[in-house]
Specification:
about 325 residues, mainly alpha, Na+/H+ antiporter like fold, 16 helices
Length: about 325
């Protein structure tokens, strides 16, 4: 029986290596099919929180409580990450909007994206790129806790507009999608490591398939938007995302962070909670102001997957 179990684990491991090796190809195929036949992926939308929960559970199983204790020794990276998150991205949004001569409505949308906290996608990319996952999760939680206070302040300072974010609404979402499954994974590993250790290596592949399906769903939901190809807005959003990641990495290295931690800050700074930006734009401004957030949700997933796949193959 044990021999049979080992054979099954070995076969599953081979499939896992195949998924990890051709992850980018998988994402591109799913993205193309979603653009061609969006109905095949739209049904995933209500299940996205569950898929993210599965991913976060896998992250929890791959972490230990000591990983979080070690962060305190490098707490300056927490302050640096949060500061860049709320300082670099809003200023980049203003600069790019003026550089591309974007309309006021689009400028508002760009600033909203820049003023939002990091999203769960940054944790997934940190996980897949073998960056400091515990630091990534802590940074996301920190920026999310601050967002109900800092995001409205940034929007008012830069745009002289008022918005309101429900603190408890955000906390409830973060608890069920991030904290609860992550903590469950941590506890399971701590209590039953002897039984689960042989399966830990499978979770990156599960995460890859899950994030590929989420990207397919996001593209399917925004098919009409992508087909109109708003070139200037697309270029501004791409630069917003890529420059944010580059600045996050560069400043981290400037402050003597290891390459592993610098990767983490790259994702945390450059990848935003674009879903929140779309919600705020729709609630307080116009449908046009939601455009940068909708495009950003596609762009940062695609760029994040590409970078995570490249970094993940490096030592």
């Amino acid at each position: 029986m044990r021999k049979f179990s080992n054979i099954m684990v070995q076969k599953a491991s081979q499939k896992q290596n195949l998924i990890e090796r051709y992850f980018i190809v998988l994402v591109l195929i799913i993205a193309g099919v979603a653009l061609w036949q969006p109905s095949g992926f739209i049904w995933i939308k209500p299940h996205i929180p569950k898929l993210l929960g599965v991913i976060m559970f896998g992250m929890g199983v791959s972490l230990t409580f000591d990983d979080f204790k070690k962060i305190w020794k490098e707490k300056h990276l927490l302050f640096l990450g949060v500061a860049m998150q709320f300082f670099v991205m809003p200023l980049l949004a203003i600069f790019l909007s003026f550089a591309f001569h974007l309309s006021e409505e689009i400028l508002i949308g760009m600033v909203l994206v820049g003023a939002c906290p990091g999203g769960t996608a940054s944790n997934v990319m940190a996980y897949l790129s073998k960056a400091n996952l515990a630091l990534s999760v802590t940074l996301t939680l920190s920026s999310t806790l601050l967002a109900p206070f800092v995001t409205p302040a940034i929007v008012y300072f830069l745009l002289s507009r008022q918005i309101d974010i429900s603190f408890w609404g955000m906390m409830k979402s973060v608890f069920w999608i991030v904290i609860f499954p992550l903590f469950d994974g941590l506890v399971l590993r701590h209590l039953l490591y002897r039984y689960v250790k042989k399966y830990i290596s499978f979770f990156p592949s599960v995460s890859m398939v899950s994030i590929a399906l989420i990207i397919g769903c996001v593209i399917a939901l925004n098919q009409q938007l992508l087909l109109t190809f708003p070139f200037l807005i697309l270029m501004a959003v791409v630069l917003h995302n890529t420059l944010g990641m580059a600045i996050g990495y560069g400043f981290a290295r400037l402050f003597k962070a290891s390459k592993r931690n610098a990767r983490t800050l790259a994702f945390e700074v450059g990848m935003q909670n674009s879903g929140l930006a779309v919600t705020l734009a729709t609630q307080f401004f116009t449908a046009a102001s939601a455009l940068p957030g909708a495009i950003f949700s596609i762009v940062h997933n695609m760029s994040g997957v590409t970078l995570a796949s490249w970094w993940g193959k490096k030592k």
